[in-house]
Design a protein that fits this description.
The complex is a heterotetramer, with two copies of chain A (143 residues) and two copies of chain B (405 residues). With 143 residues, chain A is of the alpha+beta class. Chain A is built from six helices and three strands, in the order ααβββαααα. In chain A, strand 1 (47-49) and strand 2 (54-62) form a beta hairpin. In chain A, helix 1 (3-15) packs antiparallel against helix 3 (75-88) and helix 2 (20-33) packs across helix 3. Chain A is globular. Chain B is an alpha/beta fold and 405 residues long. Chain B is 40% helix and 17% strand. Chain B contains 14 helices and 17 strands. Classes of the chains: A alpha+beta (143), B alpha/beta (405). Bound molecules: pyridoxal-5'-phosphate (PLP) (2 copies). One pyridoxal-5'-phosphate sits between chains B (93-95, 123, 125-126, 171, 175, 200, 202-203, 223, 364) and C (253, 276-277). One pyridoxal-5'-phosphate (PLP) sits between chains B (93-95, 123, 125-126, 171, 175, 200, 202-203, 223, 364) and C (253, 276-277).
């Protein structure tokens, strides 16, 4: 599936919920189910510090795709992180750079990506794109 | 002098709103309080009818504005019961007030090897300026710890004071723990050794009556926006004997007597410390806010605020896994807590969905977070316009949200 | 984009008043400009509907306020054409902005024996902070003189710059002489020697379009209350390369990253320089003021202001015994003068009786007074909402009052 | 005449003027007519610095009364100074301390005595009273 198809799937999943409580319950569930980041990566260098919640992000580049691992200490953020990994992890730099996480807006949680929110999410997306940019440069150079 | 909660809430139309489809419950008063229409109207009147830059003017608007500005100073003087209005300096807020003292008192009186005492429960605004000053001067910052109830250790204070202590800076009320500190005792102890005391009144002035003469404190600071007044205005009260000896902090218009490139001489207090065009509309608004406060019977207001705190404390204590931070015997209406297994950010986000505004995070008090070994807290804080029903709604919301985790 | 003076004056209801029984003629715009209702309404809306303290919040009001505050920053960025909004720091006014740079740039870059250059026509706000800093650091303040027309001597600048010059601080527009200084040339000359330049834009930003990238200036400062915005708010624009290297000025909340008693680390720009609760309502008001300015065609506004100045200059020159101070070839709408045998205080007092508001006194520029060997001046200053008829009324009043002496 | 009688005289003089211009013209006239302060007293020690206009005040104490000489560089202020001297100069400390310059208010020029006006007038009145207080103390001591 393309990034866009997965985003659409997520949007459809959430579309069923009228009540915000259900939406957030799902996020919390996703957060709870998420595999924790390998402890060796839960270190300060991988920390994206929002003012309120923290996000750890680790990445590996292999055979043209980037695999991300991540975690947050806040569950709602963690749920959103899980969704972000679902669409961005295992993708080529090009795919990552070409798509925006529009699903967050469309499932009605836009505020969580606001630059004034400082929960670490926006910074995480930026960081993922930066990695993608770096790897893209490396790969074009190597070709 | 009356206390009619319904009538009071009419003065704060902002409270009568829906947020996310639910009736607003505003419990973030320690961050910033709401402003009554009386304050807004007073400022509008000035801005739209008589605005002129203050001081040194010959025209009517400038004179009227100057009079209103100086009258606001007099209102603050009387609220604090300061000896003279020259001891009341308008700043942009508590943070600037404390920085002014740290710089100016520091320059005049603090030398290498000297010591400054603060407490473990200070807001960053009453830590960082002193740290920066101590670094500049080669002085040492010492810290009075608090116990598990959130009360300062008076014994520690006794042993921290030395012949090198030059100033003690203590918060009137902790913005995290709610603790109402025994500032009179601290001042008394300090004065025995001739050490001046600065009180950070950001959380004190909005709720407690202050008599700087009775307290005998050397400096007292607070912010307009936390005391039902506007943003961008604050107060530094200082005893004349200190202010007269302290060098100016910011340079510019109004604070000077005569400027030449060779030598500049300075004006008298309070002007010496009010460089540039002050926030005169803000000061006038702050004056209106204090007059508004004074139009209510303070003992009744205080009692109501204490009721809110006690009711909230009692209710929240029944919630399983909930830890309250700060249970001093004397507290203001601040209630910080965590619920086991729920991140404050999550709780704050969900409460907001229910129309309830609380603050979450580190509350500008990292040392308090470290004390309790937590990363964040949830803080609810009450003002006299809050109702017991709102506290009940808040409690019910916590119960409901807890089931989501 | 339109310019309909009658419509514009409706936005400023304060202008449509009687003072001392006469129709107000407000010619004290350089001291403080009036605010259009759009600015007041924007602030009221916030105060009465969505007020919450900014940053780090989880609740709706705090988020909305934060967004509005950051949007105001973006409006300022775009007005100045700064590269990024992090280069826009909100302060309490020009005076604080300049003090911030004098302290913080001074601490980072100025050492004993270094030199700072200002001009003879600076407002005290752009002299005293540098003087105080030079005194702290053992540095030297050097002064570019101006000629009888009120124009800076570029030759003097060339000879004042030495290998020790660390910064040059120049006003964009003189608040006494009205001179529009050749700041682009000054910046170019300074940059040839790698010397940064601070522009005091208190009188420039309200009237001229600024492009800090094209100018390549290192710092630019202005005040809200002189640019149709509220009091208690101002701006410091600084190039990131400097701001990143400069230590924080005030300490407190928001400007920190992490606080412990052992070691405190600081936040990034712009927050590093915005300690404490900023005047967020003021910033929002300033944003509205700039949007208001931008709703008019700037070239038409500027032309009207120049017409007012030229008409006033022409008229006043016909008055016997009247001396105009400042006749630079490029001027903003500021006209300072004296009439032989009439003390400015007397003239100001009597003009006020006729409803005309001018400023009299030393205009926070003692060195300019000394240059012309006068104790005081009368200053009229024009804004785009003034009319040619008002200038005529002003002229007639001077003629009439002259007969009283 | 007592201080109060002179004040009343001044008030009556001004009462005739409906127009503010006439009032101010009279003040200017009074200012112009006023004898200048002796140059030897027009020195910095005698200067009361308002922000806009300056007032020089000199005093002498002889036979129980205080004689004031004064001058201002602004004519309107000088006119008011002339009136103040008219009521206060040549009086005993007791008389000076016992009376307020109410005439300024009553002739409609109250604003000139406002503390925010900083034209030196209010400071001058304060200074005269301070002298009176000092001499009163000295004379009671000597008795
Ligand atoms: C050229 C100039 N610089 C600085 C200032 C100081 O501005 P503020 O008083 O708003 O800080 C002024 C205002 O009078 C000014 O005209
Ligand atoms: C105890 C205390 N001190 C100082 C401050 C700083 O006040 P301001 O941000 O208004 O300068 C606050 C506000 O958060 C506070 O609660």
């Amino acid at each position: 599936m393309t990034i866009d198809e997965i985003q659409q799937e997520i949007i459809d999943d959430f579309a069923g919920f009228e009540d915000w409580m259900d939406k957030y319950s799902l996020l919390i569930e996703l957060g709870n189910e998420m595999a924790p980041i390998d402890v060796q990566y839960k270190v300060d260098e991988n920390l994206i510090r929002g003012c309120q919640s923290r996000v750890w992000l680790h990445q590996e580049y292999l055979d043209g795709t980037i695999t991300f691992e991540a975690e947050s200490d806040a569950l709602i953020v963690k749920g959103l992180v899980a969704l972000l990994l679902k669409i961005y992890s295992g993708r080529t730099p090009h795919e990552i750079l070409a798509s925006e996480p529009r699903f967050i807006d469309e499932i009605g949680l836009r505020q969580h990506l606001s630059p004034t929110r400082s929960n670490g999410l926006l910074a995480m997306v930026k960081q993922m794109k930066l990695y993608a940019l770096a790897y893209e440069k490396i790969s074009t150079k190597n070709n | 002098m009356s206390f009619d909660l319904l009538k009071i809430r009419k003065d704060f139309p902002i409270l009568d709103q829906k947020v996310n489809g639910k009736a607003l419950v505003y419990l973030d008063n320690a961050a910033t309080s709401q402003r009554p229409v009386q304050v807004i109207e007073r400022m509008n009147e000035f801005s739209l009818k008589t605005n002129g830059n203050i001081h040194r003017a010959t025209h009517t608007f400038a004179n009227k504005t100057t009079e209103a500005f100086e009258q606001a100073r007099e209102i603050v003087r009387s609220y604090l019961n300061a000896t003279e209005s020259a001891e009341v300096i308008f700043t942009s807020g508590t943070t600037e007030s404390i920085n002014l003292v740290a710089h100016s008192f520091g320059d005049a009186f603090i030398h290498e090897g000297d010591e400054v005492i603060v407490t473990e429960m200070e807001h960053h605004a009453n830590i960082v300026p002193w740290q920066m000053m101590c670094e500049r001067k080669g002085a040492k910052l010492k810290v009075i710890p608090f116990n598990e109830k959130g009360e300062l250790s008076m014994d520690a204070l006794d042993s921290l004071i030395t012949g090198k202590t030059k100033i003690i800076a203590v918060t009137h009320v902790s913005n995290v723990l709610g603790t109402l500190n025994p500032i009179a005792t601290i001042i008394e102890k300090a004065h025995l050794k001739n050490i001046p005391v600065l009180i950070d009144g950001a959380q004190g002035a909005p709720h407690f009556q202050i008599d700087v003469q009775a307290l005998d404190c050397d400096f007292y600071t607070f912010s307009g926006h936390k005391i039902y007044g506007p943003t961008g205005i604050g107060v530094l009260y200082g005893k004349r004997k200190w202010l007269d000896q302290m060098p100016p902090f910011l340079g510019g218009g109004e604070m000077i007597d005569r400027v030449t490139f060779g030598k500049t001489t300075f004006n008298e207090i309070p002007y010496k410390f009010e460089a540039g065009t002050p926030n005169y509309v803000g000061a006038i608004g702050l004056g209106a806010a204090i007059e508004y406060i004074q139009s209510h019977d303070h003992s009744v207001v205080l009692k109501h605020e204490q009721n809110l705190l006690q009711f909230a404390t009692k209710k929240l204590k029944t919630i399983n896994g909930l830890t309250i931070y700060g249970e001093a015997s004397k507290k203001a209406g601040v209630l910080s807590f965590n619920i086991e297994g729920i991140h404050p950010f999550d709780l704050g986000t969900l409460l907001d969905q229910l129309g309830i505004a609380v603050r979450t995070g580190r509350l500008c008090a990292d040392p308090v977070m470290d004390h309790f070994s937590v990363e964040n807290m949830v803080r609810s804080s009450f003002s006299f316009y809050n109702t017991l029903e709102e506290v009940e709604v808040f409690y019910q919301a916590l119960i409901r949200l807890k089931t989501m985790f």
